[in-house]
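Quick one: structure for this chain?
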Amino acid sequence: MKPPLNPYLVLAVAVILPGVGQVLNRQPVRGLIFVCFAILLGGFTLKTAAPDVSFVGKIAGGLFVWAMAVLDAYKTARIRHALWSHANAPR
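Got it. Here's what it folds into:
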């Protein structure tokens, strides 16, 4: 059985490219859902934020979903790696 990717590699990729961490965890549909919601919420907050709000505040909805996607990708990678390590530990 092939070992899962290093959780820190998945974390680094997920921080740079939203949704790709889920793809590396073999969950492409979940990654696509995160990307779609990040775009939708980012666009929603962009259109509904007050004019005097900073750019980060205007896309806060998308940033929130992106942060959740990063945490989800890392957590899944850590669990998969721990399960694989436990199953393949010398006895």
